[in-house]
Amino acid sequence: MASPNGGDDFESSLLSFEKLDRASPDLWPEQLPGVAEFAASCKNPITNSPPKWMAELENEDIEMLKELGSLTKANLMEKVKGLQNLAYQLGLEESREMTRGKFLNILERPKK
What we know:
The protein has five helices and no strands.
């Protein structure tokens, strides 16, 4: 039968007193860029200033975000489909204008 102090000797033999310098970026590189900055910003969630990404938004942008956030899934999908259709129509219009420009020779480079 093992002595009661035998377990303590085993545990103390597993302890490491090595000091690791966690400040070195070479030893502890950031695995995902931006995670450390994000974590630091979340430590103090009660702040008076808006997040960095909101600093460049205008009131109109914020209202649109609120509007989109309040939509149901079906309404949001309808909005996305509308944007896709608009992008397609703009692509068609751009194609017509490029063809028109080609026929009018306004896209030709000047000869030197």
